[in-house]
## 1
Amino acid sequence: MNRKILIVDDSTTARMFIRRCFEIAGCWDVEFLEAADGKEGLEQAKKHNVELIVTDLNMPNMDGTSFLRRAKGSPRLNPVPVIVITSLKNEEKVRELLDLGAEDVLSKPITPTDVLETLQKIPGWGDSEEQ
Amino acid sequence: MSDSRLDSALRESFEVTIETMAFEQAFPLDETPDDWQNTNCIHTTIHIEEPLEGTLILIASKQCAEEIAMNIVGPPEDDSPIGDSMIADTLGEIMNTVAGRLMQKLLEGSSDFTLSLPESTFGDCPEIEKEFLVQYYQLADFAIKMVALGSGFETLE
């Protein structure tokens, strides 16, 4: 069964672009799930057995920080690595997100190289070709 | 104005975003293009809300915006024209990325900032008052206009 990555972003374009970057970085044998905000993201993450979550910060309904806090507060979702991809990156925000449990914080626009470097830091995702 | 921090940071932010996302090179133009028109456009606006107040507006012809969206998301599977909502979404994501990168550069990555959600409108572009900075770019066969306005930007100069 394919591993599942959940992409949470209110922009369809961003979700497609992020997915393409992950595919180029080696995640082609992966099922991608999508959600348009944090609320939908939590529902999807709980419903499906996702193994990696990628989230934006600036979203309507439930923003990425609240989503991350809720995901890390859930015993079921807590072990799932979360990568934040945002246009709002700064030192203070990065510290806050890492303290909340984010695996890494990437700045938009991301590249496949950024994704590859981040995946290499996450146990179980280091060599995407062998997943 | 052309040597200002805002001018160079905005130019770099736009060029990198377009090259990374749309695989196109945006070439800055020194003057308003002769054939520039404010009709049948899409204008996408994003507001910087903190720590300064400013607004960025991207104005492009519908055809130009379609090309950019097609480069990023690809053509629809049934070969139909790309829809307005996807075009608006694409330009919104570009402006979100440009504004974020711009603010990271202007604040040197050290301070928190907030952005509004981007909004896109199709039609003739309204007259924009109190433009603080105007840039034009050539993107493949099209010209594109970027405007910065708001008192917050003045404090940076």
## 2
Amino acid sequence: MTGDERPDGRSGRHADLDTLADLHAGVLEGAEAARLREHVAGCRRCAEVLQALDAVQGQLRSLPAPAMPPAVAARLDATLADLRSDRPASTAPPVPPVPPVPDPEDELVLARARRGRRLSRAIGAAAAAVVLLATGGAVASIVRGGGASTTASSGAGSAASAPVQPEEQSAPKAAGGGSFGNDSVGGAPGVAPQPVLPAYDQASLRAALPAIAAGNARLAAGMADPSRQAACAGSIPGATGSLRAVEHISYLGRPAYVFVYADGARLTGHVVTEACGTTAGQAATVLATVS
Amino acid sequence: MTAGERSDADLLRAHVAGDASAFEELVRRHRDRLWAVALRTTRHREEAADGLQDALISAYKAAGSFRGDSAVTTWLHRIVVNACLDRMRRRQSRATLQLPEDGPHELADTRDRVAEQDTRMVVEEALGQLPAEQRAAIVLVDVEGWSVAEAAAILGVPEGTIKSRCARGRARLAVMLGHLRNPGAPAAVAPRTGSGPGSASGSASGSGGEAR
């Protein structure tokens, strides 16, 4: 903004509405704002515009919160109940209500690691099953079952539809007599926890893009360092916009990273192989582009 | 919070760890505010209900990716607002449809005095005339009372963009709600029509604030 139509020192000149609104909202800074304030102090017309903007804010503030209609509330309850019934009930021990948590971040990591170990066993068993069947279709279909249930969402909690972690559903059966309740979280020195990879197919990944993007961009789990992540990001053909988040996922049963870009208002997930960024100068292998 | 009541973050962690009821409790806590934001963002009851449902399924699934950098409520709002905006964009890309006219009426509070209700309806109506992204910023900051920083985190844009979207939106509302004494005055009220530098609402809201 160069401000040709601004008061620019000549205090007799009025500011336009948008400029005053910028001043009012704190968009303008420094000398420009100071100059304009000086003008407003001596100008009734411009002062009235600022008062009008205050009045608008007052009216907005006093708008009552609309109540959720009972039909909508009932529908949400049903959706949550579906999600809950799709989830295996017995895989996790009840969490104590208020564990002393020194660092929320740590605790989350632990929770994920805990689930990771649980999962890794299940995945191991599932992988064995796939080998027996000698077809990769099994894993893909499990994943797809999970994805479909998230978009349809109202289907009863039947068959292969565990929206959170499709593999998790097979955990109790697949791992046989293993009890998941006695994983000791912190007490396994030397055992590196396997990363938890949330499983997605195209539909479920598309549905999860806003949530992944909301997870705050940062070094993804599994990426050794920021430069590798940056190298990978730079090697994705066709990625435009600003990088919003990177997540280590399982895509159709394959370990991968998804780079979520926002281009204007549109979110796009670029799914690349796990090796992305490890070889300098090599373009990323894109498994899927979802938006 | 009473002793023994779990915090939002506790509930989300419990959900990630497999507690079957934690997510529902979390939603129960916040759903009225989430509904208000969804409804005002979309201005359409069905769209708001769909958007809220999309968002909650999405949050349920992706809870493990929440990293605790923001409050859980901010994170939930972010998912809801984005799901609603996303639904609106998809619909707009399918066809250029006007929003049904019944939007604002859904918001009317029938128990209140008629005059007061009329004023509110006028405000809701005016709010509905704003472009979606301006409205989302105004709803979060002015209606719901989030700080500029929080609104920026929710919408995933820089704080300067929130300020500038709020500025544009309030200016339009001031005109629509008749707060300006002499709307005919040459420079005082006429919203810039694209001649000024950085004037167009779209581009200005995208980069205006943070560019300096």
